[in-house]
Amino acid sequence: SNPMQKAYMLGTIPQKSAMYPKYFHSFGLTPNYVIFIEQPMYVNVWKLMWSKLLSGKSVSYAMEFDPKTQVQFHVFEKATGKVLPTKYLADFFFTFHHINAYEEDGQLVVDVCCAEKGDIVADLYLSHLRGISKPEDVPEYAEARRYVLPLHPVQAAGEENLVTLVDTNAAAVVQEDGSVFCTHELLCQEGIELPRINYDHYNGKKYQFFYGLAGFEQLGKVDVHTKSMKLWKDSEGGCFPSEPIFVPAPDGSSEDEGVVLSLVVRSSGEARSVFLLVLDGETFTELARAEVPSPAEAAMTFHGIFL
Asked: SS3 for 271?
């Protein structure tokens, strides 16, 4: 009954340094491949050991970001566990969450929420958030990016782009050492994090929509075809939603037919209150909310699941 009892090791990637292991939070998955991003965020084990002995600080204190190191995409074959020999590189970024990934015409499309600053982790500490006094102090949200990895790259002439998909301006170029350097495409202009898709029907497949937090007080719905975003924000303000969860309609005929759920904490007014927000998955307008009687004690949440 425990699914973890059926787990097995698919493949491994050796650490470049045992004392500076890289940090990761999620990975991409398609019917035939697993995409693992090796990013320049690592845990300084020396610092971790000393901080634990001397100050009792958490693991995050020992996390460090190296903006001089490029990102590398590792691609596993699910059938064999082997890592593709191609070295896929990109300019440095930090990521928590993959949005989705899929295969198309011999290429892997990998969508991720990326930040160019490694200190985005520290920006979200409560001590920092409480010290915000002006708009420019608000932490920048990650941007949604698309990278395209050619599965069978050939030596191309000059700066020839190996990406042949017509609906993206992402690029991949073979470098002199045989590695493939990938340049991203933005999926929308606004920042967004904690992305969710119609997971039941579109995970690992070509898709059009995803939902996420578009700032501390807003939810967003992104159309990756038009590169546009619809927003929800409470008209009274002071409301902080959690990660939106898409629940597909049982017999829905379109990708976004269903509802989006988010637990919202309202901090404005005399007493804090909590409500479950229900949005239309297509129009992104409010359908209903289930209020918890005030005063309610609840914290903002990150990940959740509809059962």
From this structure: coil
